[in-house]
Amino acid sequence: MASDSKKKDLIADAKNFCDGMSNVFMLKKRDPQTRHLLEKAKHLIESLIADNQKLSSSSNVGVPRQQRSGGGMGQLWVQLDELKRENQNLRRQFGKAQDDRSTTQKGQGPGEVIIAEHHRFKQENDMLRSQCEKQQTTIKEMESINAKLQEEYKSARIALETTQKSMETILKDYRSMESNLKSVKTENESLKSRLSKQTRPLMRNDSLSKNIENISEKCRPTNIAFMYNTLESQEWMDAKEAMEDESDFEEENITQFLCAVLMEAFQTSKELHSALKSAIAELIRKPTLAICPTIFGQETRKLKLPDDISDGVSQQLRQFCDDLDVGVLVNMLSEKLKNNYSEYVEQGVLENKAVGRYLHESARITWQMAIQQPPMCLSIKDTRFDDDKHKLWWSCDQSRAARIDFFIWPALYDYENGNLLIKGCVHAS
């Protein structure tokens, strides 16, 4: 009875295994090697079952006991296929090639192959799943960065649109201002022409003539005042620093010397202008002197030109003021300095390049002051400090300034006792 029970169990297991093999065969029919093994196993099991049934029928054996719910190998194949499909999906995500064929080695049975494949795919799936999680984490980080960049892009775009609108508004304003400037220039030219025509008939002795400036002339008091200001901030400052570096004089002495140079240049220009008018008057009185080569070497008589001729001469001098040979004026100025400020000359101050530029620019500007009608005025006559006419030197105390010790920079007027154009700089105590 025990042997019959064992045979019945064996037949039931064989049938279950055969059914499992049939299911595996349906799932693995794409693999030639597995297909061959399954067909051979099925054929052997079916033959054994048939032979056993013949023996059972001949010996009239009872009905075998209920079959066990086996199919273990079939379930392994099913799990293996599920793992392979999952592996294939993971490989597809990472762009790796997929090989469906099992790498069965010779000498291994179907069960061992299934178990080996099961373990291999499970390990590979774990590894790919870990990589997939890392990639997903990276993707989330990139999405966060992308979101921030999109916000920044939106802000930048809004700023750009705002800037473009501002630029459009500015361009419109610029075009409007440009148009207004053209119209103002046209109107200005018209006013210049009208004013020039209206000022020509005015007589020199008219009380209004001193307060009227011909804006059509380049050499006029307003422009001269601007050049005078520039002279103080550039050439005067360079000359002062050069003397401080190359001589032993104190700052107080240097500033007084440079102020004296400017006043001497102004006086020399006035003398040249006066001599020119006297020479013209002498030539008008004696025209034949024009061919005498020594006329300008002789002392001419102190004659006075008529007012209308004097005005005309000054106008012509202003028109050609840039053609003046400044070197002659500088030579006349240098001779005066040698006589009156010999201690500075002996130390080679006049040979300094910065001082030389200051002498030339002083002569050029003071000449343009002298040929105005009436002449402009440089003044260092004040003895009491007046905040309306003077500015204090940096080292002086504003609260105690009362008496002027000396001038550092002369005050400029449009004519003598006229309107103040540039304040004088003084040292006061």
UniProtKB/TrEMBL annotation:
Keyword Coiled coil: yes
Residues in Mitochondria-eating protein C-terminal domain copies: 220-426
Keyword Cytoplasm in annotation: yes
Keyword field: Coiled coil, Cytoplasm, Lipid-binding, Membrane, Mitochondrion, Mitochondrion outer membrane
InterPro entries: MIEAP, MIEAP_C
Subcellular location: Cytoplasm; Mitochondrion matrix; Mitochondrion outer membrane
Coiled coil: 132-194
Family annotation (Pfam families): MIEAP
Region annotation (Disordered) ranges: 92-111
Protein family membership: Belongs to the MIEAP family.
Name of the protein this chain belongs to: Mitochondria-eating protein
Species this chain originates from: Tegillarca granosa
